[in-house]
Amino acid sequence: MSSIKAYLDDYNRLVVEVSRRFYGGFTSGFYLSNDNGFVCECTLKERIEKEGEIVYVLSFSKELKFGKRYYLFEAHGCVTTLQHRFIVQTPRFHKQFTYTNNDLGSHYTKRSTSFALWAPTAIEVSLKLTNHNETSIYAMERGEDGVYRLLVREDLKNATYVYLVERNGEIVESLDPYGLSSTANGKASAVIDEEEIFSIKENTPRTVINHYCDAIIYECSIRDMTSSELTGTKTNGLYASLAETGTSYHGLPTGLDYLTSLGITHVQFQPILDYETVDEKNPKRSYNWGYDPGQLIALEGSYSTNPDDPYSRMKEFRKLVSILHARDIRVILDVVWNHMYSAEDCALWKCVPYYYFRYTDNQYLSNGSYCGNDIESRNPMTRHLFYTAVEKLMTLYGIDGFRFDLMGILDIETMNEITKRAQQIKNDAMIYGEGWDMPTALSHFEKTTIANHGNTLKIGFFNDTFRDVLKGSTSDEQKYDKGFLTGSLEEAYDAYGAFTANSIDNYFRRFANPTQSINALETHDNATIWDKMHACCQEEPRDLRMRRQRLMIGCTLVSQGVPFIHAGMEFCGTKHDNSNSYMAGDAINGMNWERREYNKDVVEYTKKCIAFRRSHNIFRLETSKEVAEHVHIEMIHDHMVLYRLNREQEQYLVVINPAGYAQALSLESGGRVIFDENGDYHEEMIHYVEVPLCSMIVIDLLNEYKEVIK
User: Fold this and answer.
1) Do domains 4-84 and 94-174 have the same CATH topology?
2) In whole angstroms, what separates CA 709 from the centre of its chain?
3) How many CA atoms lie within 13 A of 624 on its CB side?
4) Across the strands, what pairs with 460?
5) Which superfamily is assigned to 631-700 in CATH?
6) CA-to-CA distance for 389 and 399, rounded, in angstroms?
7) Do the beta carbons of residue 185 and residue 281 sit within 8 Å?
8) What is the CATH architecture assignment of 94-174?
9) Closest by alpha carbon to 408, among 371, 380, 368?
10) 432-453: burial string, b at 16+ Cβ within 10 Å, e else
11) What is the structure's pLDDT at 702?
């Protein structure tokens, strides 16, 4: 390890760290030099004495050129390479080196392939190219804005490559940050003939999505959907596995056919962009959800039939999306762009150290993600990469939207521009994510959080109020806490806000419009509803908890806002009380088709709820104005909620009884039960109805609404 390290932190500012082991850390002077006779004296501005080192802050008067090697000499004769550090975070650097064209990465034609890498702090960049098992190294030429370029006049359709980047005194081997695909375990980026990907037919979903509330989102994992041998697919846990048709278990559909049978409009896949912690050549030896990103555009190879063939994952996933579209299901990707698995080992750092990551005022890596680093989304070239990734994923595969993990780490301006660009490609594209206020080194007003929803009107947020009020708090520390639907009846008034997507003033408003409220009682994180009830409803018999499960599904699908269902929620899925199962394996996370069969009545009830919502757009109001005009909620008897919807010829009354006993209701003008506790329709007119324990019914009042007789 060098006794001295020198960092360029601004255009005329150096920070030098001298080890106490080297002359006690004391020295009398420094100067800069390069290989071409350049010499520049440095002026001491500040000296900071620390336990293991002394830090010298220096200034200098001459201009340093990027792309050149510089060395720092100190008075005892020690020399070290000058490293570019926080200079890359300065406004002047952004102005000097921001690149706006769309030609970064590799671009193939049969006659030639162009390569372009943005690496302004690099001294030299070479391309290490492997084609037909022969490897060659080509020097790249530095151009404007710090972009290194090369044109190779060969047919490189099946070639792979890495960049050799000399920066900060060392040469590193790096993937292409803009790479479209890679070989197994991210060993090399791949030249891709996009026309081969586009040769797979693209289908268009039939149902028109006018706004977010028209969506019914189903979250699942590519691997989990078919990992079980009981799925009946030829392969398990792959893109191709989920594309198989005609699979079943004991006569009940599995895999793709099961997804289709539910009637959902959107499937949200847990991360399928390349991640680090599963060996793609031996995927069954390990398990991970994929929230440990390695690349931002290339797909994960452990889900492909041949992870060493870069085309395999691309073609198989495009085919899967096309099949889902043909079955009227849109596809949303769960993207993890808030951090990288390892900052210093990823291509972003290797190509331009310090640039893509956020730092605290004390110049430490920001760690609002609790994963060791945060992406600096405000930097122009981070945005450039994000925008390119959105465009490529939507055009290459037909993606219909993005769910952003820990979206509160990303800034509002970037997220709004992502939304704008996605919706220019598809006007019904959905953008939503976790709007939690994470402790990243970003001002409160810049974070894409629920608190700032007024500045992100086209972006949705997971509504934790909906979750906590109706189900009960979801953390392990609060697993015994009940919500309104799990038995805390005194929370009835808070539930009013949940049923109205927390979008109107009367009932704890959190969002500008219901389109911003993603209503999820269960997601991949934390305990499932069923496991939550193991704790908070442990005194209740199983059949009562089953009724509560159905009630929570029903309320999710009749509430204003955007309903969200986690895979397995519809058959009382359990993770056996493992609330953080991100690496717990297939036995815990995979779809349990035996349990699906055992609880098939809950699945059928869920299907009826989905069909009911899709056939009644009054449960899918787009604006807070509409909700305020057409929805009214009140409470009668023992915390039984009456959720009334009234618009022109539509007069509906949703009656929600979370109590552990039946309650009666009289209707002055009469009505017809069009959705009972089993999701069934009744023809007869009634003036009196008994609402079973822990259940929901919907009544069509038919005539002009008159007050309910209490």
Assistant:
1) yes
2) 47
3) 18
4) 432
5) Golgi alpha-mannosidase II (2.60.40.1180)
6) 11
7) yes
8) Sandwich (2.60)
9) 368
10) bbbbbebebbbeeebbbbbebb
11) 78
Burial 576-602 (b: 16+ CB within 10 A, else e): eeeeebbeeebeebbbbbebbeebeeb
Residue type, 203: N
Helix (H) / strand (E) containing 7: strand 4-10
String of DSSP letters for 512-579: SSGGGEEEES--SSS--HHHHHHHHTTTS-HHHHHHHHHHHHHHHHHSSSEEEEETTGGGT---TT-S
Give 289's DSSP letter: -
The set of catalytic residues is 405, 434
CB count, 10 Å around CB of 2?
Answer: 14
pLDDT per residue as tens digits for the range 560-614: 999 999 999 999 999 999 999 999 999 999 999 999 999 999 999 999 999 999 9
Return the H-helix or E-strand segment holding 268: strand 266-269
Structure tokens at 163: 């960049």
C-beta of residue 495 within 8 angstroms of C-beta of residue 556? no
Give the model's pLDDT for residue 637.
87
Q: What is the residue whose two structure tokens read 């268009």?
A: 204
**Domain residues of the chain, as ranges?**
4-84, 94-174, 337-461, 631-700
Kindly state the DSSP code that residue 433 receives in the 8-state scheme.
E
Q: How far is CA 609 from the centre of its chain?
A: 27
Angle at the Cα of 70 (from 78 to 9), degrees rounded to 5?
95
What is the model's pTM? 0.96
In b/e form, how buried is each residue of 241-267, taking b as 16+ CB within 10 angstroms?
Answer: bbbbeebebeeebbbbbbbbebbbbbb
Is the pLDDT assigned to residue 394 strictly greater than 80? yes
- How many CB atoms neighbour CB 646 within 10 A? 16
Which residues are registered as beta bridge partners of 226? none
CA distance 524 to 516: 20
CA separation for the pair 473, 405 (Å, rounded): 20
Q: CATH classification of 4-84 is 2.30.40.10, yes or no?
A: no
Neighbours of 532 (CB within 10 A): 28
Q: How far is CA 672 from the centre of its chain?
A: 42
Confidence of residue 1 (pLDDT cuts 50, 70, 90): low
